[in-house]
Amino acid sequence: MVPPLALALALAVPDPGACPQDAALACAAVRAALVVPGARAQVEAVHLASGRGCAPSAAEALRPVSASGEAPLRFTGKGDRGERCQAFAWARVRVLAPGLVLTRAVRAGEPLEAAVRPAEVELKAGRSGPLPSLPEGARAARALSPGSPLLSADVLSGPLPGEPVTVLVRAGGGLELSQTGRAIPCGRDRACALLPSGRRVEGRLEGGLLVLEVP
Prior knowledge:
The chain is mainly β. The chain has helices at about 5-10, 25-35, and strands spanning about 40-50, 55-60, 70-80, 85-100, 115-120, 140, 155, 165-170, 175-185, 190-195, 200-205, 210-215. Strands 1, 2, 3, 4 and 5 form a five-stranded antiparallel β-sheet that branches. A five-stranded mixed β-barrel has the order 8-9-10-11-12. Strands 6-7 form a two-stranded antiparallel ribbon.
């Protein structure tokens, strides 16, 4: 017999990875609502909000799960007299995703390639996501401490503003043209340069080259 919800949700989950039987419905509901590819969710505790005495047989999360925090759950089941009932609870959730952490302190502008290692990183609401891999030429956007997760906002890529960069233009039919420009500030995950003619170009960084595709 499924225990009443008040009993099933009374205790914190001792092993979030294993998800013991008394929290199995909550764990399944949270994991089904997880919307971050490659991430996993740990249910650390479940707290009943209403519906004491309802014996649950199914559960669902009431909103998508994309970061650590409190997830609202709805349970359906049967009451003491066999009537259909609903109950509501909050699950304390920890969401982890593949990422990188710093192995040592780095200064602003320092290359990151030899200063990170793979690790699971907690996803927190309102914070930029972790980087699963380093972009080409990645540098620290600010001073970073050892053990810190590497977030997308912590990383700059490409040549520094003012440095020379080769701009490779790829046109239809396999035609390629190149010339040297000067790197200028650009959006994240993009590379920009100023050509001798004064024209600003934007493309992607590929093997140290700024590649610009044209029809």
